[in-house]
Write a structure and sequence with these properties.
Jg20938 protein, 6 helices
């Protein structure tokens, strides 16, 4: 929660929790929304760059225990967890058993092409920067699930190895 009182764009003050959340939702919804116009659609159709093609999953090697282990060591301890409450320290404490479970999960994600629903969620925390109580004076930070971060690290390591 940014503060106990928030100033709206029209200058009125809101102090109730539901009112503040409504203002936060409206402010960031407007800030991060995009509207694609038909002109942009036409431009995309005429884009001379190469089209993206999906490679068959048979070409993608399975995720190894070593890859998961290396990526897990790269995750920093002490970072806030996402909405699942799982921390890097907890994953590291799971040992080889958790590495095997994560390996199977990551292989499934890569070969089936779908991610778990939990990876699509984050907890957004607002940190006050400076100034008055306008929402624009708060910085949103998204807290992501550590299992998702670990999967991203495995993919990043693969890409950096190739490049």
């Amino acid at each position: 929660m940014p503060s106990s009182i928030v100033k709206t764009n029209n200058g009125s003050l809101v102090s109730s929790k539901p009112g503040i959340w409504r203002e936060v939702g409206y402010f960031y919804g407007q800030l991060y929304s995009t509207v694609q116009t038909p002109v942009e659609d036409e431009m995309m159709a005429k884009d001379p760059r190469a089209k993206l093609t999906r490679h068959y999953t048979e070409d993608i090697p399975v995720v190894s225990l070593y890859e998961v282990s290396v990526a897990l060591e790269q995750l920093k301890n002490g970072k806030a967890p996402g909405d699942d409450g799982i921390t890097a320290k907890l994953l590291k404490a799971g040992g080889k058993l958790i590495l095997k479970v994560l390996q199977r999960l990551f292989d499934s994600v890569i070969h089936q092409g779908t991610t778990p629903e939990a990876w699509r969620r984050s907890v957004v925390v607002l940190f006050f920067k400076k100034g008055d109580t306008l929402l624009k004076n708060n910085r949103p930070i998204s807290l992501l699930n550590h299992v998702y971060k670990l999967f991203s690290r495995v993919i990043t390591n693969r890409i950096s190895y190739i490049v």
